[in-house]
Structure formats: structure tokens, C-alpha cells
Amino acid sequence: DSGVTQTPKHLITATGQRVTLRCSPRSGDLSVYWYQQSLDQGLQFLIQYYNGEERAKGNILERFSAQQFPDLHSELNLSSLELGDSALYFCASSVVNVGGEQFFGPGTRLTVL
Amino acid sequence: QKEVEQDPGPLSVPEGAIVSLNCTYSNSAFQYFMWYRQYSRKGPELLMYTYSSGNKEDGRFTAQVDKSSKYISLFIRDSQPSDSATYLCAMSFPNDYKLSFGAGTTVTVRA
Known about the structure:
The complex is a heterodimer of chains A (113) and B (111).
Chain A: E1 5-7, E2 10-13, E3 19-24, E4 31-38, E5 42-50, E6 53-57, E7 64-68, E8 74-78, E9 87-94, E10 103-104, E11 108-112
Parallel strand pairs in A: 2-11
Antiparallel strand pairs in A: 1-3, 3-8, 4-5, 4-9, 5-6, 7-8, 9-10, 9-11
Chain B: E1 4-6, E2 11-14, E3 19-25, E4 32-38, E5 45-51, E6 54-58, E7 61-66, E8 71-76, E9 85-92, E10 100-101, E11 105-110
Parallel strand pairs in B: 2-11
Antiparallel strand pairs in B: 1-3, 3-8, 4-5, 4-9, 6-7, 7-8, 9-10, 9-11
């Protein structure tokens, strides 16, 4: 158990809908990262927050957004969902902003029908 | 060319064998190197974390980094059926945030 928690574990929804994924980092970790894992693309970095501020964006679609709250938990919002958004979404956390070990949560499996 | 190349396998070995995994990368600026283990439909679990070149050992696991060849390796000694999983290499630049992952190698250890 990495100490990173994610909810929900599974999410099934329809195209065009909007969903919110939630992540709580390990105690003491200030950085939160979101990754998407699909069969064809592997693990892809989406976005990073550090102590409430957005620090970096990766391959994140404009339909996706995230935020980190004062208690350091983070939410990833996915809107106007498409079939291709079906994937595993992982949250990871680390103590530092850069170069640190990242610890992953159990993931949320999103299925868009 | 992908930034990080990893043979997806699959790799099947008998119990007790040494498992040898490797990744190559194209950007010599990578400084931090990691190996993650991922069981089916679970989150990646950090196994080894190394900085720059050299070897690191932790129990049955040994990680090697050869920056001159842009090549990293993970060795698993005395492999067990519980080691059956997908192994992902990952790396990052100094003063950077994101991890660049290999595609992952699926390993099966036969009892």
C-alpha cells in the first residue's frame, strides 16, 4: 500500500458526460501527479500540482482539468467524454517538486460507453 | 523514435531463475532512473530508485545504470511466482517533474 488513495475504483459512463476523479496523496507529500494508462499509449503524464499550484502540464486534453485543494487532495475533471478516454487514471504523489520518488495510487478505471 | 524503449516481452522463466530486464533511452540528460512493478489492474509500485550511474541492490533486486550507453537494467534473483507482473522503467530529468515510462515488460515466473 503506497499511502495514496483514489476514488472511485471503477467508473462507467456514457459519451458526452463529465466525471470527477479524486486523489489523496501520502501524508506529507506536496506534489500530486496525474497519469493516464491505455493499452496503446502506455503511461502518459497529464498534469502536476505542487502545494496547490499547477506546476506542469503534459499530454492533457483541453476537456480535462484538475485542481489541488488546501488539504492537498486533488481532483481530475474529465468532460465531454469520448470512447477513447477509456483508460486507467493514476494519481501519484511525492514530497518534493522535482526529481523525487513518485508513489502511485491504485487507479480509477474509466469506461466510456 | 520513442524517448524510452523497453521490450514488452513477454518473458517467461522458471522459478529460481534470474530475470533480466532492460531499457534504453535517447536523451542523455536523464538523471533519475526508476523501476516500477505493476500487477494486473493495479497501481505501479516503486521498486528501485537510482540517481545517475552505478548499481543499487535491494534484497533480490539489483538496478544498474550505464549512462555512457544510455542503458538501464533490473535483475531479479531467485525469482518467485509472485514476481509475475509487468515491470516498467521510468526516468526523469533534473529539475523536472514528469516521469517518462517505457512500455513495460510482462514477466511470468513458472512454478
